Write a sequence for this structure.
């Protein structure tokens, strides 16, 4: 089967140990997690895990079903790049002497719409946010100029391109179900 990069978005309550349970699903299937980002979501008390993995459709469907079975997981969905808006941030620590002695370095930074956020006599730090490919491309070009001392990038953050957050629909359904059960008991 053809492997593809999938983005899995998991909404959960914020309980210790859940991240370990979620990543264990990937480990059991021997799937490498390409990036992982965990943060609060737009819904109070709900956290959002954004995970990318390179696999096939059949496997990602099974992974998402297994994740959804975890007790503290509200909902899990997988997406291809066309269904989400995604972004990353990267920091590049560059050797200042090499950077200043090579006029191409500042041209590369400007061409990639990156920005210099700190400069001192030893190094400068460049920040770039955007798509994964753009961040990788800037790194490759700066590496060719032999001025990169350190490089770090965040995990992918993503939102769906649909009008509604899928977890909103789920929570509304759950709340309505709870209200009906409560009324039936009265």
């Amino acid at each position: 089967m053809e492997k593809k990069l999938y983005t899995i978005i998991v909404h959960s309550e914020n309980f210790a140990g859940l991240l370990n349970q979620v990543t264990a699903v990937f480990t059991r299937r021997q799937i490498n997690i390409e990036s992982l980002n965990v943060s609060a979501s737009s819904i109070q008390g709900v956290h959002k895990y954004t995970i990318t993995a390179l696999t096939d459709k059949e496997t990602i469907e099974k992974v998402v079903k297994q994740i959804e079975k975890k007790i503290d997981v509200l909902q899990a969905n997988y997406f291809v790049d066309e269904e989400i808006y995604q972004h990353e941030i990267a920091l590049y620590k560059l050797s200042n002497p090499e950077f200043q002695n090579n006029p191409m370095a500042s041209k590369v930074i400007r061409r990639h719409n990156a920005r210099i956020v700190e400069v001192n006599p030893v190094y400068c730090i460049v920040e770039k946010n955007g798509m994964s490919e753009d961040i990788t491309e800037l790194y490759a070009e700066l590496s060719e100029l032999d001025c990169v001392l350190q490089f770090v990038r965040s995990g992918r953050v993503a939102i769906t391109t649909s009008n509604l957050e899928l977890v909103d629909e789920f929570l509304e359904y759950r709340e309505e179900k709870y209200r009906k059960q409560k009324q039936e008991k009265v």
